[in-house]
Amino acid sequence: MDVQVWMASKEVADRLDVHVRTLRNWLDLFVPAKERLKNPQGHYLISEAGFALLKEVKERKDSGNSSLKEIQRQLIDEGRLSEEMLTAEEYASAEETAVALSSGSNLEAGVKEMELAVHETLLKFQQELAQLSSLNNMQSAILQKIADIEEMQESLRLEMRRVTFEMDLMQQRLTRRKERYARHEPRWSLNPFRWFTRSDRAAEQ
């Protein structure tokens, strides 16, 4: 009983001297589903028959100018591939086209959504600018009020200085008047009894 041998896609790519991505494209075109499978990690495993087909494709690709589509048709005509491979490949191509169209529609919807978001952002920015303008006007009014208050405070300080100066001047005048009065105070008493007492004392002497 023959044992089926499976090779990892990385090993097959190295043996064919092609990139792993190129190998994955070739799998859809030339290797039937029964000759390839995926392991739990999502990597392809290829049978010996599948490897033989890929090796043939590599040799024909290197020896001439045939495209992959032409090589696939040649293998189908030779009976080495079934017509189902062509159908499967066309189905995969149609599916890829549908995915591309869907991606394009999603991209267009995403662009429209982005344009709407940008428009909303611009509106918010304009509103914020208007609010800032109002705040600037309010700030100007507040600064003007502060300037008026400072001017009133300065006027009040000047008025207080003037009043203080006049009060000091009045105090000085009052002090000088008291001093003059003290120097020229009458020596005779205004009490008439004291006058007679002094006269009697003078006569007795």
TrEMBL record:
One of its GO terms (molecular function) is DNA binding. It holds the Pfam family MerR_1. Coiled coil: none annotated. Gene3D superfamilies: 1.10.1660.10. InterPro entries: DNA-bd_dom_put_sf, MerR-type_HTH_dom. Residues 7-73 form the HTH merR-type domain. It comes from the Bacteria. GO terms for biological process: regulation of DNA-templated transcription. SUPFAM superfamilies: Putative DNA-binding domain (SSF46955). This is MerR family transcriptional regulator. It comes from Brevibacillus agri.
